[in-house]
Design brief:
Layout lengths: L26 H9 L2 H20 L5 H23 L5 H22 L6 H25 L6 H20 L5 H35 L6
Helix pairs in contact: 1-3, 2-3, 2-7, 3-4, 4-5, 5-6, 6-7
Amino acid sequence: MTAPDAGPQLPGEPASGGAPARSTGDPVDKLSVLGASWGWALGSALVTLATGIIVLVWPDETLHVLAVVIGLYLLVAGGFRFVAAFSRREHGERFLNLLAAVAFVLAGILCLRNPLQTITWLGLIVGLVWLVSGLLTAFSAIADKGLPHRGAIFCAGALGVVAGIVVLCLPTESVVVLTRLLGLWLILLGVAELVIAFAIRSALHGHHDTGPRLG
């Protein structure tokens, strides 16, 4: 008779009540530990926040500059999501998160391609990637009932869905309008990611505080 699933394992959490789990030499294990850390989530949040601020305060609001900034953000965010996907124990959830990471990277490449730099196309790319990744994130939060901070993750996913719908539906006939729209949503999404990062930190500290003590 097998023991019931105890839910997702946190970095450094004892595997079965014994010594803390350690990362082996397997690259997947190392990515799993790194992706589940609160510092990695914090880095992703800071990248999103910084991009939103840069987009809003950039003095020359040209389509080329906006496309480059957004393209680089999507590439970096895709990298963060790729590593974070390995923190998922279920292969189905890992695949969905990897899919979202690939969507970010592909969208970043499209934004950086000069022939595709039109206002409508740029808004379409960003809106679609936010919509798809938001749906995948919300679904992952619903499916994984053992996720300790699933409420915050679901809210972040829902915010991504709303951001994608707003960007896709609102008319963006000028670079200034698109810049303000993307900048504001990036800041809101960055704040949501910050909440998730500190929720992970709180969960990790709570586990260590309630763990076994010597003496």
